[in-house]
């Protein structure tokens, strides 16, 4: 064996292994040390619940505070401003508040602002950052906000909450449905609700119009993350991730990569069994983009 092959990589002294790492003063993106930054670049994460998520489940599809907190800490520094144009129960705003970022959230549905206020009072959360919840259609409401440093959002997944999904919405008591949520509702009957379109292409166009407005309010060289999973349209698997990336590219965003957010405790449904293979989506795609204008 050659001498080169025999050389081992020097091991870090034991006392340094659990250290948070060093902050590089050239870092203009976030407040993370090199080690913390590196850990967040891994292409999969496992979803992490927190006690602050509890009240959010009155909303049909909230995301979890810790998951969005990780994104915000990767893409912003303290006191920077984050926009969520589909803020729902206000998860992004609570995550911003927890880690000292300012947040602007927009949602069409007045009831969800009330839910956000309930989350604050039931979890005894005091707002210490500049946090704004705006009720309105993002297509128009975005024009009244200033410039922001990061966009993170989970739009409606087309109209999947409205389809009948044959048994996915109620709990038959069988073991494979143990974690199913009963009584799932859709967001609203409002015409501006982009979860109410009949055609998938119209949904993508409406989302493109809103993200196009958001692009104009994002500072240059800053990032945007869209959280979505793939789903079926008219019982056919739709490559939603590809459609979202093409849509964001049309607006001018550069695609930076997808972090797969694993959701291992979701129930398994025997959709095609025993006739055909049908996938169970047990992850979300966290698709990140950058605005780069010369
Ligand atoms: C997937 S949910 C967001 C859930 C949110 N991430 C949370 O943690 O609660 C999508 C939200 O988009 C909202 N929405 C739909 N169309 C909208 C529009 N045109 N403008 C603003 N909000 C809209 C719905 O009311 C719904 O609350």
Plain-language structure description:
The chain has 294 residues and is of the alpha/beta class. The protein has one domain: Vaccinia Virus protein VP39 (Rossmann fold, 3-Layer(aba) Sandwich), CATH 3.40.50. The chain has eight helices and ten strands. It has helices at residues 3-6, 34-40, 65-75, 91-98, 110-122, 138-141, 200-216, 240-251, and strands at residues 44-46, 81-84, 102-107, 131-135, 148-153, 218-228, 231-233, 236-238, 253-262, 283-291. The strands form two sheets. An eight-stranded mixed beta sheet has the order 1-9-10-6-5-2-3-4. Strand 3 (102-107), helix 5 and strand 4 (131-135) form a beta-alpha-beta unit. Helix 3 (65-75) crosses helix 4 and helix 7 crosses helix 8. The radius of gyration is 21 Å and the shape is globular. It starts with a helix and ends with a strand. The model is unreliable at 164-183 (pLDDT under 50). The chain binds S-adenosylmethionine (SAM). S-adenosylmethionine (SAM) binds next to strand 3 and helix 6.
Shape, per Cα inertia axes? globular
- State the fourth-level CATH superfamily: Vaccinia Virus protein VP39
- What is the H/E order? HHEHEHEHEHEHEEEHEE
CATH top level class name? Alpha Beta
The CATH topology is Rossmann fold
Largest sheet: 8 strands, mixed
